[in-house]
Design brief:
Length: 445
């Protein structure tokens, strides 16, 4: 791989991975804040309002960080990926533009109302502002996923005289079946992050012995939502997304499973290390015939291995793709187990006093971030060597005039800036958690 191409890819991978740490929490918290506001109205209990306000403050910090880290990525299309922008801008400009509209205008306007307008709005109007924040954040998430889904499975376009692709049908772009499966899977992943973060903070308060009433609400809402969406993440959303891949990108599926040879009754590898040189898996622990069944609903179905495709169509980093995919699935399974046990203890009325379980919930906090990152790595590594699947190779998309040295210089600059931003973010969130749900916002004084 050309060194400039490698630097541009690492550059974008870094900025997008860092950026997505923030929206996944805002998109995940948005529906949970609506739940808290709904319970506050229903039960006429201010503890729920204080809980919603507390999470809205965390949401606000994340939202600002998401905006600050998201804007440079829009520019990177022009600076680092100009050939891709010229080629595909006529299509993806639509969805990216709409994302900007919805995220900046709808979400931010109503977030301002939600955070600072509570005293001026009726309880019902304030509830509506929470719903609008939720809709804005989920709409903006949809347009981003639809953009990525078009790169995975291009639809609704025609090739213009100058060789670029242009949009022929906006509705085909937004109704792309790939986009809907990917969106469902992505958003349920975001809610798992929101739920586990909420449960984790609640567990921390219970172990610390402070804000007990609010902590119980956090743990309860977090565990119930976490269980519901962890199951959804596996089926139907993960299953549906997997079947989209098997139908449209069979070579990607073979690489994700490190299936080097086409097999009848292909096994599902639970553990094992892909050995790309010798084209086999070392130390495999497998479930016989399971991959055939999951992919084609038949135990003895043929599953195409990598040997069925020319080598220039293989994803370039099979080992990393395989590990990303297995980390995502493994963590997803662990989330189901954790939330299931916690929900059982909640149902028995023992969760709030089961310190061992509270420790598990508290320490689970980083893992949904790892799982979501591994999921996106799977999607993006799996699409290689294509930028737009079947239409433009990654090697043709980057800015040929920007040297590896230029790219490296800005990457180091971003690393430095984002380190400072990350520290600032952790400081602000820690301060909110320390002050707790009873701290009123400075605007209310």
């Amino acid at each position: 791989m050309d060194s400039a191409l490698l630097v541009h890819r690492i550059h974008f991978a870094f900025t997008v991975t860092f950026h997505y740490l923030f929206p996944q929490l805002t998109m995940g918290l948005a529906p949970l804040i609506v739940v808290l506001k709904t319970l506050a109205l229903r039960r006429n209990d201010d503890t729920y309002n204080q809980s919603a306000r507390f999470w809205a403050r965390i949401f606000g910090i994340n939202f600002v960080m998401g905006v600050v880290t998201g804007i440079p990525m829009e520019f990177q299309f022009g600076t680092n990926w100009s050939h891709f922008s010229r080629f595909a801008g006529g299509v993806i400009g639509q969805t990216l533009g709409m994302e900007g509209m919805f995220a900046f205008f709808l979400e931010s306007a109503f977030l301002g109302l939600f955070l600072y307008g509570e005293k001026r709005l009726s309880p019902r109007a304030h509830w509506w502002s929470a719903v609008a924040v939720f809709l804005g954040s989920w709409l903006s998430g949809f347009f981003i996923v639809a953009t990525d889904a078009w790169m995975q499975h291009p639809v609704g376009y025609f090739t213009a005289a100058d060789g670029s692709v242009q949009l022929s049908s906006f509705w085909q772009l937004v109704l792309n079946p790939w986009a809907w499966w990917q969106y469902a899977h992505n958003m349920s992943g975001a809610v798992i992050t929101g739920s586990l973060v909420m449960a984790s903070v609640g567990a921390f308060y219970l172990l610390w012995g402070k804000f007990q009433e609010h902590a119980r609400i956090f743990v309860k809402v977090g565990v119930i939502a976490g269980l519901f969406f962890s199951v959804l993440q596996l089926f139907p959303t993960g299953d549906g997304q997997g079947r989209m891949i098997s139908q449209n990108q069979p070579v990607t599926l073979a690489a994700m499973e490190a299936l080097f040879v086409t097999q009848t009754g292909a096994p599902l590898v639970i553990l094992g290390q892909p050995n790309v040189e010798e084209r086999k898996i070392d130390n495999p622990l497998e479930v016989p015939d399971a991959l055939s069944f999951l992919t084609y609903r038949a135990w003895k179905a043929d599953v195409q291995g990598l040997d069925a495709f020319p080598k220039n169509l293989w994803p370039e980093n099979i080992a990393l793709l395989y590990y990303s995919y297995h980390i995502m699935v493994g963590l997803g399974t662990i989330f189901i187990a954790i939330t299931l046990v916690a929900a059982f203890l909640l149902w028995r009325g023992k969760l709030f006093s089961a310190r061992w379980m509270l420790w598990i919930l508290m320490l689970a906090l980083p893992f949904p971030y790892i799982a979501n990152t591994a999921g996106w790595l799977t999607a993006e590594l799996g699409r290689q060597p294509w930028l737009v699947y079947g239409l433009m190779r990654t090697a043709d998309g980057y800015s040929k005039m920007v040297s590896a040295g230029n790219g490296m210089f800005t990457l180091l600059g971003f690393l430095g800036m984002y380190t400072v931003l990350g520290i600032l973010f952790l400081f602000l969130v820690r301060r909110e958690i320390e002050q707790g749900p009873l701290a009123e916002m400075s605007s209310h004084h």
